């Protein structure tokens, strides 16, 4: 039987910033929890323990958070597709782009888990080698161009017209804290992250990921995926290795990617964990229905 798709539906796949201690517990009853065990077997990382038992400081380590987030997103995805027609559109944020590629079939689970494990470890190593962090600026009066003039600071995530996340050196982010108001931004909030992600300070991680990408055998898909780095639709495999590589040192253009969804897309459903992307997309453009189930039971009760 041919696959059935919903052209009005987009599935959202979060990045690593949505985790909390015990975040996997509400999904433990899912009939697809076994995918977490599969990812543990593939990577040699005790992902079930991360999701159910580990203290928060262990869970949010860059080399652990990415696998944990991916695993829980895959549980939610399998729960969703068991319900009926598939979302035609898939949109991930940073790490979530890898989750979306596995969901689409362009990557299989083994390749996705392996790439994410490599990416997370390489990003953690890059962050240890060159200190850096991230700061979110908020407010509707600022401009992107002004932020790009601060030395040692790079735009990392464009999450909406009123929220941009920047990566930078400690010195650069200190200067940002001093100057953001005169550049038109109302608040500058330091983020509790392990490095200056999506910036040139991740160049060594990009090299490690590039090496892993050379061994990937890409599949095919009938989904439509939107890339972070260019905000464009890509449903063929030919461009994705370069897109994933660029993403490590380039901004996540989530605003542009959300606006690239056709107007016919009226419903969003966010994969676990969290509801960050539901909040971001809500502020970017109108949708009729936005869903972010927080447990396997909530997912079961959803009618699409």
SSE pattern: EHHHHEHHEHEEHEHEEHHEHEH
- CATH homologous superfamily grouping of the largest domain: Malonyl-Coenzyme A Acyl Carrier Protein, domain 2
Biggest pleated sheet:
6 strands, mixed
What's the total number of strands?
Answer: 10
- What gyration radius follows from the Cα positions, in whole Å? 18 Å
**Uncertain runs:** none
Structural domain count? 2
Quaternary state of this entry equals single chain
Mean of residue pLDDT values? 95
* Shape verdict: globular
- Look at the helices and sheets and give the structural class: alpha/beta
CATH class of the largest domain: Alpha Beta
What fold name goes in the CATH topology slot of the largest domain? Malonyl-Coenzyme A Acyl Carrier Protein, domain 2
Q: Largest sheet, order of strands side by side?
A: 8-7-2-1-9-10
Number of helices: 13
CATH architecture of the largest domain: 3-Layer(aba) Sandwich
Euclidean distance between termini CA atoms: 21 Å
Helix percent reads 40-55%
């Amino acid at each position: 039987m041919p696959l059935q798709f919903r052209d009005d539906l987009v599935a959202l796949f979060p990045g690593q910033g949505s985790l909390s201690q015990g975040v996997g517990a509400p999904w433990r009853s899912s009939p697809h929890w076994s995918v977490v065990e599969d990812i543990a077997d593939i990577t040699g990382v005790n992902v079930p323990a991360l999701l159910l038992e580990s203290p928060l400081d262990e869970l949010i380590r860059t080399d652990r958070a990415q696998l944990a987030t991916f695993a829980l997103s895959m549980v939610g995805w399998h729960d969703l597709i068991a319900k009926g027609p598939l979302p035609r559109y898939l949109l991930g944020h940073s790490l979530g782009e890898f989750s979306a590629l596995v969901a689409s079939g362009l990557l299989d689970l083994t390749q996705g888990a392996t790439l994410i494990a490599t990416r997370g470890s390489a990003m953690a190593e890059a962050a240890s080698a060159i200190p850096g962090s991230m700061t979110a600026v908020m407010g509707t009066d600022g401009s992107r161009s002004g932020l790009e003039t601060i030395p040692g600071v790079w735009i990392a995530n464009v999450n909406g017209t009123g929220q941009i996340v920047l990566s930078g050196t400690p010195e650069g982010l200190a200067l940002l804290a001093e100057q953001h108001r005169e550049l038109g931004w109302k608040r500058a909030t330091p983020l509790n992250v392990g490095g200056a992600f999506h910036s040139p300070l991740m160049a060594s991680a990009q090299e490690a990921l590039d090496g892993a990408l050379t061994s990937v055998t890409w599949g095919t898909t009938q989904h439509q995926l939107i890339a972070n780095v260019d905000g464009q639709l890509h449903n063929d495999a030919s461009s994705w290795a370069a897109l994933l590589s660029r993403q490590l040192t380039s901004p996540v253009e989530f605003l542009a990617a959300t606006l690239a969804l056709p107007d016919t897309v009226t419903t969003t459903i966010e994969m676990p964990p969290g509801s960050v992307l539901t909040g971001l997309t809500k502020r970017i453009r109108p949708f009729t229905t936005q869903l972010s189930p927080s447990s396997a039971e909530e997912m079961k009760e959803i009618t699409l």
